[in-house]
Structure formats: C-alpha cells, structure tokens
Amino acid sequence: MIKNRFLIIILIVSIAAISASQKASYQIALLKYNGGGDWYANPTSLPNLVKFCNANLGTNISEEVATVSIGSKDIVNYPFVHITGHGNIVLSLQEVENLRNYLVSGGFLHISDNYGIDKYIRREMKRVFPDYEFLELPFSHPIYHQKYQFNSGLPKVHEHDNKPAQGFGLIYKGRLVCFYDYECDLGDGWEDADVHNDSKEKRTQALQMGANMISFVFLENYK
Questions:
Q1: Is the pLDDT of residue 61 over 70?
Q2: Which CATH class is domain 2-222?
Q3: Which alpha helices (DSSP H) does the chain contain, by range?
Q4: Among the four residues 25, 42, 163, 211, which has the most C-beta atoms within 10 Å?
C-alpha cells in the first residue's frame, strides 16, 4: 500500500516537472533524527535551494520546506529528503525499515556532510542497506551533467580536512537512491550569504549542483 501510494506521488511529480503548463506544487523535506546530532543545522539552505530551482529550472516546489522524522509514515509524501548535521545519528529498527521502504519504493535521500556526520551516517546507512556500499560516482554520472556541468565532480565549498570533495551514491537495482556529498558541504553553500561569508562564486556553484540533484531526481531518475 505504501509503495503504491508513493509511486503515484512520484508519477504526479514527474509529470509536473516535465509539463511546465500543468505543474502542481510539491514539497521537499528535511529529515529529523535522534542520536544528538544537529539535524536542524543550516536552516536557510533548503529554502534557498528551492527558490533557486524555481527561478532557474522552472520547477514549482513549495517554498515551505517540510520537516519529517525518519520513522514517520509521512516520509512518502516527499520525493526528495535531505539530511545533514555535525554529530551522531542513531536509527531505531523501525526507522531503518521505514527509510529502506521509502528508498526502494522510489524515494531519494541527499546527505550533506556538515563536518562530523560521516562515521555515523555510514554506520546507519549500512543498517539500512546491509548488502550495499557507498560508491564514489564517476564524474561522468548524469547527476553532474543536468542543466549545469560539473566536469570535475562536486565543487569544494568548505575545507574541512582539506580532502577533495567526493560524491558517493547508494545504487539499488540500478537506481541511485542516495547521494552523499563528502568534504564538500553543499548545505552550507546553500545558506544565506551572511551565514558563512562564502563567496558569490562558491554559493552559486553549490546552488547549481543542488539544482542538478533536483533535476536528476525529478526527471532523470524516473525515466
């Protein structure tokens, strides 16, 4: 029942994104989790991404970004969910099952490492998909080549440990169900300009890459 309901939502979203004259508004969501990490970090990032996409991709995403708990049945209402933070994240067995059902049924998860979440999110996603590993996506992957071209992969927004930015994915039955930006910090790059004082160039690059993700999820990923 959940699967059928979600697939219907995805169909509506895809038709809306493709047909500019018959678009219906839809939402993306921030995931709330337990464990002590600051799931609420970067409060201006998703609203700014939505505004950028609506202005530059012609999408009609609601500017009211939802917040949904990982274990909530309402997660199926959002074709794109985002998780970020600096610290620990712990999923219950029910949350593991709910997130897996969401992803295998057509949902998409974006993880943005806000510096410090890496070892925790890898541990918990291994529980969600025990038989799958995060794979670094090649620079030729379509997520880097939607409206905006990122021929060298993710832009480097913040330094963190001075490692190169990397984009990892979980691929289930040939479909990218989760994209993880590591040593990049796209979420910080989407924030208001005065929050981190990032250059206009860095913020633009971050928003363009975010727009590529939205485009990939709503168009490319459900062909």
A1: yes
A2: alpha beta
A3: 2-18, 45-56, 93-104, 118-128, 186-190, 193-196, 200-218
A4: 42
Contact yes or no for 213/45 (Cβ under 8 A): no
Chain centre to alpha carbon of residue 193:
21
**Residue 27 phi, psi (nearest 5):** -120, 155
Q: Which residue has the higher pLDDT, 18 or 63?
A: 63
Residue showing tokens 């969600």: 128
- Residue 142 burial class via C-beta count within 10 angstroms: exposed 0-12, middle 13-18, buried 19 and up: middle
From residue 26, give the alpha-carbon distance in Å to each of 63, 96, 105, 138, 185.
9, 25, 18, 30, 25
Q: Rounded to the nearest 10 degrees, how much is the dihedral formed by the CA atoms of 50, 53, 54, 55?
A: 120
pLDDT exceeds 70 at position 144: yes
Residue with tokens 């990049």: 184
Q: Inform me whether the pLDDT recorded for 23 exceeds 60.
A: no
Among the listed residues 203, 178, 217, 219, the one whose alpha carbon sits nearest the alpha carbon of residue 52: 203
* Beta sheet of 29-32, edge-to-edge order: 66-69, 29-32, 80-85, 108-113, 175-182, 166-172, 135-136
Helix 93-104 to helix 2-18 angle, to the nearest 10 degrees? 50
pLDDT above 90 for 1: no
Q: Domain limits of the chain?
A: 2-222
Alpha carbon distance 1, 42 (integer Å):
34
